[in-house]
Every structure is written in structure tokens, then in C-alpha cells.
Amino acid sequence: MRILITGGGGLLGRTLVAEAPLGLEVHASQRTSPVPEGARAHVVELSDDRAVEALFAEVRPEVVIHTAYGKDFERDIILATRNVAEACGSTGAAMVHISTDVVFDGEHAPYAEGDPLSPITEYGQRKADAERLVRQLAPGAAIVRTSLIVRTDGQDATVAQLRAGTFPPAFVDELRSPIAAVDLACQLWELATLPRERIAGVWHLAGPEAVSRYTLALLLAHPHGLQDRVTPALNRDFTPRRPCDLRLLTTRADRELATRARPISEALHPPKRG
User: Fold this and answer.
1) Which CATH number among 3.90.1150.10, 3.40.50.11720, 2.40.10.410, 3.40.50.720 corresponds to the domain 2-151+179-208+248-262?
2) Is the Cβ–Cβ distance between 220 and 148 less than 8 Å?
3) Confidence of residue 13 (pLDDT cuts 50, 70, 90)
4) Pick from 134, 154, 149, 34: nearest CA to 88
5) Is the pLDDT confidence value at 105 over 70?
6) Which of 35, 127, 195, 264: disulfide with 41, CB 3.0–4.6 Å?
7) Is residue 272 within 8 Å of 266, Cβ to Cβ?
């Protein structure tokens, strides 16, 4: 099976490459961040429709896992997603599109797969728009909503920011369902290799333990003795408005996938054996 991962140089893309099952032919796109060993790299600007067409013609992917992300929302979310979804729709490739919990307003948690979209931030609105594009252009795609993706090898970006003194105050009243990057990658590989008819629709892949941004920062800081650099803040005092409770229900994944995500506290601090 030929797999194309977009955003192969990002956190999730790199983890997917590292966790790829044996026997798959893995390709990954990149713009600037390099793709790790284990996948064939393709330098592509995903907002360029002709470049995406050429990529699909060269790779001929059977499954595309669309993880690519950037801070230019129009280019990196809307245009890139439109081009990838159109290419999947026209070539028949199955699409696994990575979305976010921020498509919800944070006022009616926990959120199920079928709950209506209700974004209150610009990023959330653009990701909601991207979901609609995928539904329209790549019928049969999987739309995967996840939460905060966390490195558990001690190299999470939060740790680097704490060391540098650049980590912002963390909200004590904002709940998320963080997931270890390796756990999410393993779940995505199981999903991506399911029979085509079982992939379609919305999936929530998130951790089973809800924690505040402040608690998550402390969990990451503790092994490095950086707890005193984590300062609390209140979501309700922040402008512009942010969602305050984005806990996700993972009903479909719990029913249909064998792979389970660990509570984030366990993933970051595994119990000692013996």
C-alpha cells in the first residue's frame, strides 16, 4: 500500500513516519521542515494546485494522511486542504484529514463526533471550513478531530520554551484532551489501513484524561525541574475569547479501533516496573 503523509516534517508527520507499519510504501511532503528517514520526501507547496496534481501523479497514493499545518490560515488550511481533497477525490485515494477540537465553542463539552460545529476563534473557523471542503471534495474521507499533541520523549516544545523563559502563562480553567503523539500516530495507522468502507466519517482521536493547560505544562516540566517556570492564568480573562472546555468523546474509536490512547499523565510519567 502506498501512503502519502502531508506535512511530513511536522510533529505528527514525523511521528507517523517513525511508527509506520512494515510493508507500507511511505511518501511524505514537506515545504521547509525535513522529512525523517523512513519515507521518501517530496518538496511541495500544497497551496499550489498544479504542484499537488504533479505530486499525486508521481506518487499515486492509495491513502493520504493530511497533517500539514501552517500559520497562514488561508494558504495552509484552506488552499492546501482544498487541493489535497480535490486530488483525493479525482484519483480515488482515501483521505484521512486531521482536524481539531477547536471547531467547537467550549461551552457544551464533552463533544461527540456528531455534534454541530461551533467555532469561536479564527483558527477554529478555518478548520471547520476545511472539514466542509473535505466532505464536499473527497466523499468517503475520514475527518479526525484531535486535541493537543504532546511529545513524550522530553523534547516537547513546551519544555524548550520553559527553559528559554518564553512559555506564556498557562490557563487553569481551560480543559483539553491531550494525546501522546506516538499514541495518535498508532491510532491513525490503524484507521488508515482499515477497509475503505470503514474509514469514512468523523473520528475523535484524543486522550482519555482531561487536564488543564496549566496541569499539562506542569506534567511536562516536572522531569526537568522546571515547575517553578509555569505560571497560571485564567482563560476567562483572555481576549479574544477562547474555548474553555474542549473535552472530546472518542466513542467511535473506542468501538472500532484496537489501539488505545493512554492518559497523558501516564504517557508522560509511565509507572515504574518492579
Assistant:
1) 3.40.50.720
2) no
3) very high
4) 134
5) yes
6) 35
7) no
Distances (CA, A) of 157 to 167, 182, 255: 9, 15, 32
The per-residue pLDDT for range 53-76, each reduced to its tens digit, is 999 999 999 999 999 999 999 999
10 within 8 A of 69, measured Cβ to Cβ: yes
For 240-262, what is each residue's pLDDT tens digit?
Answer: 999 999 999 999 999 999 999 99
CA separation for the pair 18, 11 (Å, rounded) = 11
Q: What is the pLDDT of residues 132-183, one digit of tens each?
A: 999 999 999 999 999 999 999 999 999 999 999 999 999 999 999 999 999 9
Closest CA to 118 of 130, 133, 103, 136: 103
Contact 222, 154 (CB under 8 A): no
Q: How far apart are CA 169 and CA 182, in angstroms?
A: 26
Residues 131 and 247: beta-carbon distance below 8 Å: no
> To the nearest 5 percent, what fractions of the chain are helix, strand and coil?
40, 20, 40
Question: Is the pLDDT reported for residue 205 higher than 90?
Answer: yes
Q: Where are the domains positioned within the chain?
A: 2-151+179-208+248-262
Looking up cell 478531530 gives: 145
